[in-house]
């Protein structure tokens, strides 16, 4: 993006933040610009003193507790919702809860045409020492950036599912981009199986190869499983917790659909 275009976009976003609807709520996302979850994190990042932030999108209202530029948790949702994460303080030590919060926010407002916010007095929530997770920390864990620029799809997928992976080998254009855990077994798969798989797979396709998430059952000597994520010139090999496969697969479809 050119510098004038980037500047114009930033000015448009700043102007959007000052727009107020007929209820007195500020419009912070309209027509998907910026992404609604990104807009929520920006509001959290702007909140120093503890407040209840009420986000309205369509027929749903999401009340969150924020303080010290951190999201402490989702206080309530209207109409009533049965998500277990509602009323729970977020913690990096409980990555499944952090992921559940993202899933809930994305499900309720991820495709909202308009998102507004009202800043309300705080509500009793959790314990004093439970601080929640910073907006920047959540952006990192959720694979988004608060300036509105999403991470590349493969990086989003790896960030969102980090809690499910015991090891990771991410390769782009034949070069290692990132690793995590004990990835030596994944290196062996990369060297001996990936190229052969891609060549065989291409022969079965008509047209261009699309993004693929392939489960490699019994990939390791101990019988445990791995998965291979393919997208254009990127390959990510992961050893994963089988209990998280359903979530991993659903996030893949959400990101790459």
Strand content: 25-35%
Helix content: 25-40%
Distance between the termini: 24 Å
How many β-strand stretches?
11
Rg calc: 20 Å
Strand order of the largest sheet: 1-5-2-3-4-6
Series of H and E elements: HEHEEEHEEHHEEHEEEH
Q: Unreliable runs, pLDDT <50, ≥5 residues? A: 5-18
Number of helices: 7
Average pLDDT works out at: 84
Class of secondary structure makeup: alpha+beta
- The backbone outline, from C-alpha atoms, is elongated
Largest sheet: 6 strands, antiparallel
What's the short story on this structure?
It contains seven helices and eleven strands. It has helices spanning 3-17, 36-45, 95-109, 135-142, 153-160, 184-203, 245-256; strands spanning 26-30, 51-57, 60-67, 70-78, 114-120, 133-134, 165-172, 175-180, 212-216, 226-231, 234-240. The strands form two sheets. Strands 1-5-2-3-4-6 form a six-stranded antiparallel sheet. Strands 8-7-11-10-9 form a five-stranded antiparallel sheet, with helices on both faces.
Describe the protein's topology.
Layout: H1 3-17, E1 26-30, H2 36-45, E2 51-57, E3 60-67, E4 70-78, H3 95-109, E5 114-120, E6 133-134, H4 135-142, H5 153-160, E7 165-172, E8 175-180, H6 184-203, E9 212-216, E10 226-231, E11 234-240, H7 245-256
Antiparallel strand pairs: 1-5, 2-3, 2-5, 3-4, 4-6, 7-8, 7-11, 9-10, 10-11
Helix pairs in contact: 2-4, 5-7
């Amino acid at each position: 993006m050119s510098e004038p275009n980037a500047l114009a976009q930033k000015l448009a976003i700043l102007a959007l933040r000052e727009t107020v609807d007929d209820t007195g709520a500020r419009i912070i996302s309209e027509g998907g610009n910026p992404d609604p979850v990104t807009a929520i994190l920006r509001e959290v990042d702007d909140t120093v003193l503890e407040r209840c932030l009420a986000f309205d999108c369509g027929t749903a209202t999401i009340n969150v507790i924020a303080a010290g530029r951190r999201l402490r948790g989702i206080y309530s949702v209207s109409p009533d919702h049965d998500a277990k994460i509602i009323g729970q303080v977020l913690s990096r030590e409980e990555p499944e809860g952090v992921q559940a919060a993202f899933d809930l926010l994305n499900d309720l407002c991820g495709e909202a045409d308009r998102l507004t916010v009202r800043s309300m007095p705080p509500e009793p929530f959790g314990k004093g020492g439970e601080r929640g997770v910073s907006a920047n920390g959540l952006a990192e864990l959720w694979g988004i950036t608060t300036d509105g620029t999403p991470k590349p799809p493969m990086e989003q997928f790896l960030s969102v599912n980090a809690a499910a992976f015991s090891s990771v080998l991410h390769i782009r254009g034949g070069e290692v981009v990132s690793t995590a855990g004990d990835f030596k077994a994944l290196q062996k798969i990369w060297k001996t199986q990936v190229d052969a798989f891609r060549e065989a797979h291409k022969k079965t396709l008509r047209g261009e190869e699309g993004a693929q998430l392939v489960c490699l059952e019994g990939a390791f000597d101990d019988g445990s499983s791995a998965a291979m994520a393919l997208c254009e010139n990127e390959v990510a090999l992961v050893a994963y917790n089988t209990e998280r496969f359903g979530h991993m697969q659903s996030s893949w479809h959400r990101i790459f659909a």
